[in-house]
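During the second year of the project, the team shifted from modelling isolated chains to modelling whole assemblies. The rationale, set out in the original proposal, was that interfaces cannot be judged from single-chain predictions alone. As a representative example for this report, we include one of the complexes processed in the last quarter. Its constituent sequences, exactly as entered into the pipeline, are reproduced here:
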Amino acid sequence: MSTTIAVPGQLLGATTDFLPGPGTHIHASSIHASILGPISRTVPPKPAGPSKRLTKITKATPEPLPTISIDRDISEGHGQGKREIIPEVSSVVLCKVTRITPRQANVNILVVGESVLDGDWQGLIRVQDVRATEKDKVKIFESFRPGDVVRAAVISLGDQSNYYLSTARNNLGVIMATSESGNAMYPVSWKEYRDPETGANEWRKVAKPF
Amino acid sequence: MTDRRRINGPSGGTSAPIFSKYLAKTPNELLERPTRSRPNNALRKMFLKTGVTPSASGSAYLELEASKNPKSTAPGLSSPSTSGLKLTCTVHGPRPLPKSAPFSPHIILTTHVKYAPFATRKRRGYLRDSSERDLGVHLETALRGVIIGDRWPKSGVEIIITILEGEEDQWWGDGIGHGNTAAAEWGMMSVLSGCITVASAAIADAGIDCVDVVAGGVAAVVKGSAKGPSPNLVLDPVPSEHKEIIAACIVGYLPSRDEITDLWVKGDIGHGNQNEDTAQSASYEELADSAVQAALGSHRVLIAALKETADVKIGRS
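Output from the structure prediction step:
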């Protein structure tokens, strides 16, 4: 491995030569490292060539700049020393419903992207964010129940304690649910889960499995 | 406020008694002030290691070499004149803010500095006293200018430093009636400088975004010895090695930006020609510049320690 390690504050290059990636910051029109880790440069893929024959002389498009970034997750596969990560707007999270009211469902965010969170981050799915269509007919208790595991997208950093989440996409919604008799259920339609033992159906906002 | 929950030791000093017959036998060895053996512009040897606390997000340990009485044959720790510095720092976070906290678009930094009860010759209490809170505030000022807080909205980070062995404010012999007794808290300056350096290493270990690694450095104007009577400017002063410290300065310095995040000057300096003593001594700017030089020295140790950390984490040590 020939990666070089950057320490915070180290000069990485000028903004005219690189684009700043994660783990870097710009100071006085040059890019500096902001965390400790190996430097990685990613060169954007070059277009294969002019898609059609050039019929007139145009100005050559400037070559896209390579992105310079610092890998945050440097201790992957070593167990200890995991990196902290927090939910951001538009990141997809997995969360568990803790409490429902007619207006909203309160959740605990457990996973952001691929990484398991350490702390206790609270989230909120409001009734108007459950699905994209017929928003006025949504009922929270026909969409979520406490204990369900939900895949959702972060739409806002929210108020002082809650992140605001949304399930208004086909691939978002309940991915694991237990019935009232306590059995794990399987999805049968976009709004129904079925208990394999009793055969009873329950309403949920179901995430499209594929 | 007294601590009612624990059985406390006596509040005064609890150093081991020295019997007069012992004093009579080897008076020179015991009652000789340690002297500065390194040049004025040299720092003490420094040991810095990160990742000492596995349960924390980031941690670091800093140790400064204890100064020894040159004539003493006893090993360093058992000699009564030692004055080293041992600090551990743990960083917890970024973690969610408590529910009662208001919305914050950036990270909330909390610092705790605590002397261990056994850290100095005079025993410390279990609760933080005003000087420890003061150190915490200074440390927070030094670090706030470095952390890029906007990258971590709605979260808090806690930086906890325990001082395992603190710098003495004066030579212990001065306390029992030899020389002046009007010692200010000079030891705090070196401790704060160490705190800044060790916290900076722990923050980098925790992976919190910073604009630079901040390094602490101390410089002092000390009263000259018998050889050279004029006041000297020394880097990284050990208070017990000097009979009288006129002024001291500590900075938190960002080397790659050439910026200072924290500056604290104590003592008698900058009066120009008013005073005979200070007339020959250094100016305020010279003192601060020397402190920056000291910070550059500890910055080099920091960089080396951080590169080592990254190498270990990648697994190519």
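Chain A touches chain B through 36 residues (CB under 8 Å). Residues 76-81 of chain A have pLDDT under 50 and may be disordered.
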